[in-house]
Amino acid sequence: MEAPSAPSPPPKRLEMSPYEIVHQLASSNAVVVFSTTDCCMSTVAKRLLYSLGVGPAVVELDQHASGVDIKAALYQLAGRQPSVPAVFIRGNFLGGVEALMANHINGSLIPLLKDAGALWL
């Protein structure tokens, strides 16, 4: 009869949690837009940023392996529905298309983008 073996160590974690994915992407890019390809408000947010000369990192959640979980994490972080688009500038959550547009209209978006290094002009 063999002696009982020691319990095997827990398996190494290979994937990041949805919150870690959001944090990693938001903190390693000047501007990130979490989006879905079928969301017209996501398209508006991306087009506004592109028109200003910003090349945001875009995460299309409907094409991402962890998209459903990331979308749920964004809902928890934002405390609102719908959770996309979700715009992060310099690692900070700005908000959805409403917040993006409001900041653009009141003149505070360009300075935020410049401070983040997303605009040089």
Automatic annotation (TrEMBL):
Keywords associated with the record: Cytoplasm, Redox-active center
Domain Glutaredoxin: start-end pairs: 31-93
Matches recorded under InterPro entries: GlrX-like_pln_2, Glutaredoxin, Thioredoxin-like_sf
Any one annotated GO CC term: cytoplasm
Cited Gene3D superfamilies: Glutaredoxin (3.40.30.10)
Coiled coil: none
Location within or outside the cell: Cytoplasm
Keyword flag Cytoplasm: yes
Pfam families to which the protein is assigned, alphabetical: Glutaredoxin
Family: Belongs to the glutaredoxin family. CC-type subfamily.
NCBIfam families: GlrX-like_plant (TIGR02189)
PANTHER family: GLUTAREDOXIN
UniProt name for this protein: Glutaredoxin domain-containing protein
Species this chain originates from: Lupinus luteus (European yellow lupine)
